[in-house]
């Protein structure tokens, strides 16, 4: 750490032997605060949270803190005054953007009337099926008929009923 400029190096407020880069101070303070919480009592400066000062020196620090200048300057500065140069005449316009007679925009209503493909996201299977059916009617007209898919025959194959399985010995093997 010898090669660093002294202006960017700072000492830890809890232990003066700890020397580090200014940008690492906050991170280091968190560690040292936990280590020295029972032995060292420091107060936090109201103008800069990195400034940790022993109580006897606290009031003197508050009076001369370099960050105090920023706060005091902000509190005592006068409000901005509009001069004649910065003022301008009111701009009159025939448009009225505050028309309250218009209904609010509803994206679902717009999509249901426009030629937009909608997806049935986040629906249960029965809702999805009804949504797709309604979408097809909307897009292709009221006379659109769903193509009927051939229903699966759930009855068993008659050839399989007579066969015995090796695990199920039925009446054929008991004869």
TrEMBL record:
Compositional bias ranges of the Polar residues kind: 164-175
Q: Which cellular component, as a GO term, is one annotated location? A: nucleus
Taking every annotated instance into account, which residue ranges of this chain make up the domain CHHC U11-48K-type?
A: 9-36, 42-69
Note down the stretches annotated as region Disordered.
134-175
Sorted keywords for this record are: Metal-binding, Zinc, Zinc-finger
GO biological-process terms attached to the record: negative regulation of DNA-templated transcription; oogenesis; transposable element silencing by piRNA-mediated heterochromatin formation
Show the PANTHER family listed in the entry: GAMETOCYTE SPECIFIC FACTOR 1-RELATED (PTHR21402), GAMETOCYTE-SPECIFIC FACTOR 1 HOMOLOG (PTHR21402:SF14)
Write the protein's name: CHHC U11-48K-type domain-containing protein
